[in-house]
Write a structure and sequence with these properties.
The chain is mainly alpha-helical and about 350 residues long. The protein has one domain: ABC transporter involved in vitamin B12 uptake, BtuC. It is built from 13 helices and six strands.
Length: about 350
């Protein structure tokens, strides 16, 4: 017999039907995936007993392979910043296919204002503008890059909220247009040689630090502010949210604007990290970001998900990609697996929705 407790008005609560937090299930999945790769490292003859995350050769002071852990976190932290914005868009009932192209356009434009005038005592061979745009304070290209993302986000939001164009079509158009801007800005040529202050933004473990700070910030915003409550309400039932007094159209514009600015900030970090900007930067980043969010429990139907879940989804994504490198699989196999992960994440979301509908 199920254990129940009585509440106000004779209502009962069945403790046997209490579900674990979705984030806990995702964390368990992360541990299982790590265990699978560790087991394969011990079982496959050519691996010679190597470990994915643990130090089996005494190279580090701790029991963990610190170098590989840093690589795993670094390689997903920049896309993880994009995923923070994508998470909010999906929770609000939308989708954003333009974030990867916004990365390319923002990186090109920001880097053109971050260049140093002299390279080894000679004029910068990759200079886009004249001396007036050289050796500027790092805050200038950062602001320029963020404005690019903000503009793209506002255009996405206005098209979706006020013209009622489906999010898929509106952001697909922005994806193509922003990539065109990235190629047009320097006629397809890379832009290089940033100032030291700008390069610092993406140096060392700074991408991870930026990601953690932003993840904490948006976790608090989504969980404890009116903005977060309105985002979940719109994604759960847009008509009900509108009737309750929420300015749905204005809020959608804000959500897409934030997503665009996060994509442009990821572009700034990426270009600073690589010390160059290229028009092809951010290619398919939008799909990786969506996969991280969906793996982390964000429902494509809207109204459900969390920043914590997206962070765990990001780690799962990173462990899987790094795990295949660890198993010495060729890069084209990794691309195939990434495609499978994206499809599997959507299938998993559909299964979760049907399971939730069956309980109601």
């Amino acid at each position: 017999m199920a254990e129940t407790s009585h509440g106000t008005g004779g209502l009962t609560f069945d403790k046997s039907k209490r579900a674990w937090p979705n984030e806990l299930n995702i964390f368990i999945a992360l541990i299982l995936i790590i265990c699978i790769f560790e087991a394969l490292g011990q079982l496959l003859p050519y691996m010679n007993g190597q470990s994915l995350l643990f130090d089996t050769k005494g190279r580090f002071d701790s029991i963990f392979n610190e170098a590989r852990i840093k690589i795993i976190i670094l390689q997903v932290s920049i896309i993880g910043i994009i995923a923070l914005g994508v998470t909010q868009v999906i929770i609000a009932g939308g989708i954003d296919l333009s974030s990867g192209s916004i990365v390319g356009a923002s990186a090109m434009i920001a880097m053109s204002f971050a260049q140093t005038e002299l390279v080894n005592g000679n004029p910068n061979p990759k200079a886009i503008f004249g001396p007036w745009a050289m050796d500027l304070p790092a805050i200038i290209p950062v602001i320029v890059g963020l404005l690019c993302g903000m503009l793209a986000g506002i255009i996405n939001g206005v098209l979706i909220a006020y013209t009622r164009i489906p999010p898929f079509i509106a952001t697909l158009g922005m994806m193509v247009s922003a990539r065109g801007v990235a190629k047009w800005w320097s006629r397809g040529n890379p832009i290089s040689f940033p100032t030291e202050d700008y390069a610092w933004i993406g140096s060392g473990m700074m991408p991870v630090i930026w990601f953690v700070l932003l993840a904490v910030l948006f976790h608090i915003i989504l969980r404890y502010t009116v903005y977060g409550k309105h985002t979940y309400a719109i994604g759960s039932n847009e008509d009900a949210a509108r009737m309750s007094g929420i300015k749905v159209a204005r809020h959608k514009v804000l959500v897409y604007t934030i997503a665009g600015m996060l994509a442009s900030f990821a572009a700034i970090i990426l270009s600073a990290k690589n010390l160059t900007a290229q028009s092809g930067m951010g290619l398919v980043y939008e799909l990786d970001a969506i996969a991280m969010a969906v793996i982390g429990g964000v429902s494509l139907a809207g109204g459900r998900g969390s920043i914590i879940g997206t962070c765990l989804g990001m780690l799962i994504f990173g462990v899987i990609i790094s795990g295949f490198t660890y198993l010495k699989l060729d890069a084209f196999y990794q691309e195939m697996v990434k495609g499978f992960i994206i499809v599997a994440a959507v299938v998993l979301d559909q299964w979760r929705q049907k399971k939730a509908a069956a309980k109601t």
